[in-house]
Amino acid sequence: MKYLLGLLMVIHALAFSPSQKIYQTKSGKVSFFSATLIEDIAAVNNQVDSKLSNNGQMIFQLAVRGFRFENATMQEHFNENYMESDKYPKAVFKGRITNISEVNFDKDGTYKTTVAGELEIHGVKQNVTTTGTIDVKADKVAAKSSFKIKLADYGIKGTLIGDKIAKELTITVDCKYD
Questions:
Q1: What is the spatial distance between Cα 154 and Cα 80, in angstroms, rounded to a whole number?
Q2: Ranges for the Lipid/polyisoprenoid-binding YceI-like domain (predicted)?
Q3: How far is CA 146 from CA 15, 55, 103, 129, 154, in A?
């Protein structure tokens, strides 16, 4: 009987423990930069849907057509010739902060993080590990990271890659969560 009562108390404690908190945004920002001797190319997408849990799980999803360029022709070539946005309309990252125990969502501060997960671009999934920061200030949370990807790793091809478009892009993530 004592065993059954103890088991019931443990189940009750687990069932009614404080639940995880999920931070989210639909206006996150992802940008990329390509630098070559001939031309620099930059684009930004301000419609990134992201969720971040205080247990370290995170997801980022964006419409590829949401990237905006200074030059409309670049934007058209990006969507039609390189990213094939009609065929591959979304890019998705699913992963987790591997050192989540070092982040205190209840205390203001900037916390260095390591993130590992799977990035899908152009229909190709690749494992990615990178560093970033989680900023906590007045109960508001922001996540930032910058990392590089190789276009060839995602099956992105085109005649100008290597000349006008870098083979490796710098991706920057900046999300402020509600």
A1: 16
A2: 45-175
A3: 38, 22, 19, 11, 18
Question: What is the C-alpha end-to-end distance of the chain, expressed in Å?
Answer: 47
Which tokens sit at 113? 């993080």
Yes or no: say if 150 and 126 are a contact pair by the CB < 8 Å rule. no
Q: d(Cα 51, Cα 40) in Å, to the nearest integer?
A: 31
CB proximity list for 111: less than 8 A, separation 6 or greater: 102, 103, 104, 133, 134, 135, 136
pLDDT digits over 104-162, tens only?
Answer: 999 999 999 999 999 999 999 999 999 999 999 998 999 999 999 999 999 999 888 98
Token reading at 141:
């949370």
What is the rounded distance in angstroms from the CA atom of residue 167 to the CA atom of residue 144?
23
Q: How many CB atoms lie within 10 A of CB 25?
A: 19
Q: Say if residues 67 and 82 touch (Cβ distance below 8 Å).
A: no
What is the CATH code for 20-177? 2.40.128.110
Strand partners, 96: 57, 116
